[in-house]
Every structure is written in C-alpha cells, then in structure tokens.
C-alpha cells in the first residue's frame, strides 16, 4: 500500500426520515447477526437507476426497499418478508435484482412493485444467505452466498446466474464473501472477503473458467471490506464496514486515497449517481445516512449501461 494516500471527507447528504425508523430488537437480523443489538434500521445495497433518476437502498432487518430522489426525498417502495441486502439494476429486464439473505435472488419491478424469487437453491439445497450481486453486460449476474461463514467456516460461495437460469459455482471456499465488482472488460471479478479482511481477485480464462485466485488488497480492523465500486479509470473503491472509510486503489492494487465518514464507522456500501455518474454515494448503515463525494471522473457501471451522459 502507498504510505501517504490522500484523505477526503465525505459529506452527509440525506438520512432515513424518523417516520421510517423502527427502534426494535425483534427482527431476525438483529437477533441472529447483531447479537440482539437494537436497530431502528440498517441500510445497505445502494444503486442508482438512471432510467428513473432515483437512488434505491435496502433496509435489511425490516425487509424494506426505499427510493431517494435527487432532492433527498425518501419513499417506501416495498416492504416484504425478507432480509434484502445488495441490489443491482438489470439493464436488460429493467428490474432491480435483490440479494436477499432469507429468500434468495429476487426480482423487483420498480414501477409495478411486483416482486418474485428468481432462484433460491443450488443442487436442491437452499443458499446459505445471499449478500450482494453485480451485473454483466450480457445479463448474467454474479452473486455472493455469504451466510454466516468466516474463518471458522470458509464455505461461503460466489455464483454466476446466466440469463437462461443456469447456475454455476465460481468460488466455494470463501470466508464471508460480500461485495463484488467486475473489471471493465469483465475478465476478472473482485470479491470482498469480509472475514479475511481482504479483496480477492478472481481472473477468468477465455472460456469463463476461474484461473488463479489471489489477494488484491488486505485490510485491518474488527470487520472487513464490504461493498465495492469501480470508476471509469479502473480504480477500485472499497467500503470498510467498521473503519468508517472507503479505500481507493489503482488497478494494480496501490492505495492512493481514503474517504472518511463524518457520521459513523459502518460504511458498508457505495454506488455512482448524479449527472454523468460523477457523484459517489456511500451508505453509513447504522445511522441510516447516505453520504456523497463529488468524484474526479465518471463512475463505471455495466458496459451496456455506460451512456453518452456518463462519458467524459
């Protein structure tokens, strides 16, 4: 890592309004994953949908998905029996895909609010607990099946779901696989292995098979890396779940910037939005706050989704 990375501070943009906060310890997520810690919400999975000019976020413990408009106004899109975590916009089907810890991989039509389970099992067995997902240009989806895995049980998985429904196991020995990002040419996948406190680099052969998996970067702290993003220069941005920080690496792994949160340490995920995808939105989950940073270049989403608006 670089010895003297530049440090930026994100600014608070908007927070979950009081009427949507639920001070309770009764959620399964609170009991099972937060050791009974009271949670009035726990935001995750931000995505920007250019077609609607809306930011969407999940609230894991209470099975809710919210939209936030450009003025910071919140609306409840749907509330259902689930634990939604990561989101991604499917630019082909025009639906939001959800990695739901309880239900599996789901699809949500943001207009009709219709929601359905797309896949919940692999070889007949239910998933451990999906966490995050990322789109490919051809409509395929990579997603992590984290469950409660960790160094004591390194059996977390990464799958690829093809448009026709075929499910392929990519990685099967992950200690808590979490956030994902694809290289711009889609020749490699970056996977946040939270309990390994590292980002794994998963390169693909020309036939799509995995070559030699290695560590792209390593971190420290009680938690570990969570959500990720990539910009149009190929820089990899990594949100750390307990340090209140986003680490920014060049494509070779060199750390050259840190972005700090001013309101809490649970920086769990991030995405691009705004005019030309030049705004970085960061979720500070426990406080229910969305932070933002004006970025020096456009963000990078799916190759097909990069429009004239997001060009330099």
UniProtKB/TrEMBL annotation:
<feature type="binding site">
    <location>
        <position position="178"/>
    </location>
    <ligand>
        <name>a divalent metal cation</name>
    </ligand>
</feature>
<feature type="binding site">
    <location>
        <position position="131"/>
    </location>
    <ligand>
        <name>substrate</name>
    </ligand>
</feature>
<feature type="compositionally biased region" description="Polar residues">
    <location>
        <begin position="21"/>
        <end position="30"/>
    </location>
</feature>
<keyword id="KW-0862">Zinc</keyword>
<dbReference type="Pfam" id="PF08450">
    <property type="entry name" value="SGL"/>
</dbReference>
<protein>
    <recommendedName>
        <fullName>SMP-30/Gluconolactonase/LRE-like region domain-containing protein</fullName>
    </recommendedName>
</protein>
<dbReference type="InterPro" id="IPR005511">
    <property type="entry name" value="SMP-30"/>
</dbReference>
<keyword id="KW-0479">Metal-binding</keyword>
<dbReference type="InterPro" id="IPR011042">
    <property type="entry name" value="6-blade_b-propeller_TolB-like"/>
</dbReference>
<dbReference type="GO" id="GO:0046872">
    <property type="term" value="F:metal ion binding"/>
</dbReference>
<feature type="binding site">
    <location>
        <position position="226"/>
    </location>
    <ligand>
        <name>a divalent metal cation</name>
    </ligand>
</feature>
<feature type="binding site">
    <location>
        <position position="44"/>
    </location>
    <ligand>
        <name>a divalent metal cation</name>
    </ligand>
</feature>
<dbReference type="InterPro" id="IPR051262">
    <property type="entry name" value="SMP-30/CGR1_Lactonase"/>
</dbReference>
<feature type="domain" description="SMP-30/Gluconolactonase/LRE-like region">
    <location>
        <begin position="44"/>
        <end position="283"/>
    </location>
</feature>
<feature type="region of interest" description="Disordered">
    <location>
        <begin position="1"/>
        <end position="36"/>
    </location>
</feature>
<feature type="active site" description="Proton donor/acceptor">
    <location>
        <position position="226"/>
    </location>
</feature>
<dbReference type="InterPro" id="IPR013658">
    <property type="entry name" value="SGL"/>
</dbReference>
């Amino acid at each position: 890592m670089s010895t003297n990375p530049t440090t930026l501070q994100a600014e608070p943009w908007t927070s979950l309004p009081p009427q949507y906060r639920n001070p309770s310890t009764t959620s399964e997520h609170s009991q099972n994953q937060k050791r009974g810690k009271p949670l009035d919400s726990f935001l995750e999975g931000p995505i920007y949908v250019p077609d609607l000019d809306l930011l969407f976020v999940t609230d894991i413990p209470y099975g809710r998905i919210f939209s936030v408009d450009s003025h910071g106004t919140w609306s409840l899109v749907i509330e259902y029996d689930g634990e939604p975590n990561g989101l991604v916009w499917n630019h082909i089907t025009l639906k939001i895909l959800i990695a739901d810890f309880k239900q599996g991989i789901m699809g949500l039509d943001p207009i009709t609010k219709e929601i359905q389970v797309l896949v919940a099992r692999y070889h007949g067995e239910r998933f451990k607990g999906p966490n995050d997902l990322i789109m490919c240009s051809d409509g395929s989806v990579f997603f992590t099946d984290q469950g409660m895995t960790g160094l004591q049980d390194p059996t977390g998985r990464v799958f690829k779901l093809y448009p026709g429904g075929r499910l392929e196991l990519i990685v099967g020995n992950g200690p808590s696989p979490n956030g994902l990002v694809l290289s711009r040419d889609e020749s490699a996948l970056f996977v946040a292995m939270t309990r390994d406190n590292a980002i794994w680099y998963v390169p693909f052969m020309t036939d799509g098979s995995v070559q030699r998996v290695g560590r792209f970067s390593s971190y420290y702290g009680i938690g570990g890396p969570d959500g990720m993003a990539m910009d149009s220069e190929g820089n990899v941005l990594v949100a750390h779940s307990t340090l209140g920080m986003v680490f920014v690496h060049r494509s070779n792994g060199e750390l050259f910037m840190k972005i700090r949160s001013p309101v809490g340490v649970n920086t769990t995920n991030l995405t691009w939005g705004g005019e030309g995808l030049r705004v970085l939105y960061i979720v500070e989950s426990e406080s229910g706050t969305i932070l933002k940073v004006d970025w020096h270049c456009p963000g990078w989403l799916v190759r097909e989704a990069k429009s004239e608006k997001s060009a330099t």
